[in-house]
Amino acid sequence: MKRLYDNMTLAAALAPAYAVHGNHDYRANITLVDNIIRGSGVKLLQDESITIQKKGAGCCLPGWIFRAREAREHIGRFRRCPAQRPRSAGSFLSMTRSG
């Protein structure tokens, strides 16, 4: 867990940082993982998305727990993301350019 804290702290020191749970997080103590992520200054995305805008470009970062049996719901949620729609269900970042 020290390595997780060190990595999250480094990421947060470099730029605004965001995290989502991965399969290994669920094998560990998830409450401890959440506390480390939040305590390091990293924003933990849980069933939410955030759009980052810079110089007319946008990037939508979805932070949803993906379950294959709920794929249609996830695709629908992603389509409501303020950035451009994904080209396929496998797309996890959506990039846009305005203007």
Structure commentary:
It is a single chain. The chain has four helices and five strands. The protein has 99 residues and is an alpha+beta fold. The protein is flat, with a radius of gyration of 15 Å. A three-stranded antiparallel sheet has the order 3-4-5, with no helix packed on it. The longest helix is centred in the first third of the chain and has 13 residues, at 2-14. The chain has two domains: 1-44, no CATH class; 46-99, no CATH class.
Main attributes?
alpha+beta, two-stranded parallel ribbon, 2 domains, 22% strand, 99 residues
Topology:
Elements (H helix, E strand, L loop, with lengths): L1 H13 L3 E2 L3 H5 L2 H10 L3 E2 L3 E7 L2 E7 L7 H9 L14 E4 L2
Parallel strand pairs: 1-2
Antiparallel strand pairs: 3-4, 4-5
Helix pairs in contact: 1-3
Give the amount of beta strand, in percent: 15-25%
Q: How many helices in DSSP terms?
A: 4
**Backbone structural class:** alpha+beta
The average pLDDT is: 75
Question: How much helix, percentage-wise, in residues?
Answer: 25-40%
CA-based shape? flat
Q: Provide the gyration radius in Å.
A: 15 Å
Number of strands: 5
What's the helix-strand series?
HEHHEEEHE
Low-confidence stretches: 84-99
How would you write the strand order of the largest sheet?
3-4-5
Q: What gap, in angstroms, lies between the N and C termini?
A: 44 Å
Provide the number of structural domains. 2
**Main beta sheet, described?**
3 strands, antiparallel
